[in-house]
């Protein structure tokens, strides 16, 4: 009798235990992050103006049942405003959109800057609200909690901090770790490329999507990046994350389970939106998002049901 099936079963069993340990750790980090970000905050009501802004953004972010290029720019813009230093609105207020690393965000900066002035809201807050709105607007997108009350800054952040399109996996792990993100966070955040297009990495293929269903928020990005098949275009850095020893397990898990990815992504994106931000006296405006939940609903949700374990 062949022992191969038994051997394979043992391998799968230990692989399962590894995945379970990884995501138990993720659950712990998620709860800790929620406590830090949402805990001990005054129960102020979200200003009505954010519901007005939400209506305006929906018209820009959804067309023919799919998320638009404007939605893609909003998601990218949130990362570019935060990762260089802090989520402080300097992407717009310090005219960072003219920097080479921010090419393709010029129109977003103009539109959000004008909307912030019109509605008399903070630019930093609007950038993060727009990203959370865009994620939720994309069919299948999760609700990322969003708060308002950040301090705006017109001081430009440092150049050269954003990751390169061809960065090595190990370098990306170190870069994100320097900002407080785990390898699981990195693998989860890169999944936002499910709704992304490249325009400058290969100008001859400008507008090529990074997965085959760019108008929806699904986990095909993980499946297609991992297999090397199906995506119109794949960034070298994304391939490197898929293959790096510290990120390959969560990457593969997200390819197999959208629920697991949504869970990890919400945790990591919430953390991203608070980089360099004093959480004191911020106001929860998650309810202003399309189908948004209050912080109590987010904290009280059954974690294992959400993960479908």
From TrEMBL:
Disulfide bonds join 67-138. It catalyses: 2 a phenolic donor + H2O2 = 2 a phenolic radical donor + 2 H2O. InterPro entries: Haem_peroxidase (IPR002016), Haem_peroxidase_sf (IPR010255), Ligninase (IPR001621), Peroxidase_pln (IPR000823). Ca(2+) 2 binds at residues 194, 211, 213, 218. GO terms for molecular function: heme binding; lactoperoxidase activity; metal ion binding. The record marks 76 as: Transition state stabilizer. Its EC number is 1.11.1.-. One of its GO terms (biological process) is response to oxidative stress. Binds 2 calcium ions per subunit. Binds 1 heme b (iron(II)-protoporphyrin IX) group per subunit. The keyword Heme applies. Heme b binds at residue 193. Residues 33-302 form the Plant heme peroxidase family profile domain. Ca(2+) 1 binds at residues 81, 88, 90. Its cofactor is Ca(2+); heme b. The active site is at residue 80. Keywords: Calcium, Disulfide bond, Glycoprotein, Heme, Iron, Metal-binding, Oxidoreductase, Peroxidase. Pfam families: peroxidase. Belongs to the peroxidase family. Ligninase subfamily. This is Peroxidase. It comes from Setomelanomma holmii.
């Amino acid at each position: 009798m062949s022992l191969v099936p038994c051997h394979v079963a043992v391998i799968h069993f230990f692989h399962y235990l590894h995945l379970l340990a990884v995501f138990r750790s993720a659950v712990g980090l998620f709860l800790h992050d929620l406590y830090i970000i949402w805990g001990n905050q005054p129960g102020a009501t979200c200003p009505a103006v954010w519901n007005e802004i939400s209506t305006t953004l929906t018209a820009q972010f959804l067309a023919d049942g799919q998320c638009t290029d404007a939605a893609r720019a909003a998601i990218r813009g949130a990362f570019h405003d935060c990762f260089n230093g802090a989520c402080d609105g300097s992407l717009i207020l310090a005219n960072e959109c003219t920097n080479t690393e921010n090419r393709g965000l010029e129109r977003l900066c103009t539109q959000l800057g004008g909307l912030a002035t019109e509605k008399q809201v903070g630019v930093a807050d609007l950038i993060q609200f727009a990203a959370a709105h865009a994620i939720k607007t994309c069919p299948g997108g999760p609700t990322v909690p969003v708060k308002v009350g950040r301090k705006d800054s017109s001081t430009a952040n440092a150049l050269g901090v954003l990751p390169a399109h061809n960065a090595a996996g190990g370098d990306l792990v170190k870069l994100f770790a320097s900002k407080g993100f785990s390898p699981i966070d990195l693998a989860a955040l890169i999944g936002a490329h499910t709704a992304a297009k490249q325009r400058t990495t290969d100008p001859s293929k400008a507008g090529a999507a990074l997965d085959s269903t760019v108008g929806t928020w699904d986990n095909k990005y993980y499946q297609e990046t991992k297999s090397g098949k199906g995506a119109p275009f794949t960034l070298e850095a994304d391939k490197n994350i898929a293959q790096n020893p510290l990120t390959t397990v969560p990457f593969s898990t997200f390819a197999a389970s959208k629920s697991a990815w949504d869970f990890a992504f919400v945790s990591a994106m919430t953390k991203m939106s608070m980089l360099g931000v004093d959480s004191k006296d911020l106001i929860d405006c998650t309810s202003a998002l399309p189908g948004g939940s209050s912080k109590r609903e987010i904290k009280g949700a059954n974690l294992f049901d959400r993960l479908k374990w």
